[in-house]
């Protein structure tokens, strides 16, 4: 896997069109930092949509698991937290 570019938000502002083009044309995300901390990324819309589809499938899978093994009083917040933890 190739290394993703990492740029400060200030640098990205200076050439946003290039960053977007790189994500769209070359399918190369750019990680954006603020004060040295990674805070966001510019990715192609295709990558975003694939992620959203995966996330929805994963949530539905966990809900199906929980419904098949009904335990009393499992809050949806716990299901969501478990889903997010699995994606890390």
TrEMBL record:
Gene3D superfamilies with a match to the protein in the record: YefM-like domain
SUPFAM superfamilies per record: YefM-like
Domain of life: Bacteria
Coiled-coil region list: none
Function summary: Antitoxin component of a type II toxin-antitoxin (TA) system.
Family to which the UniProt record says this protein belongs: Belongs to the phD/YefM antitoxin family.
Full protein name: Antitoxin
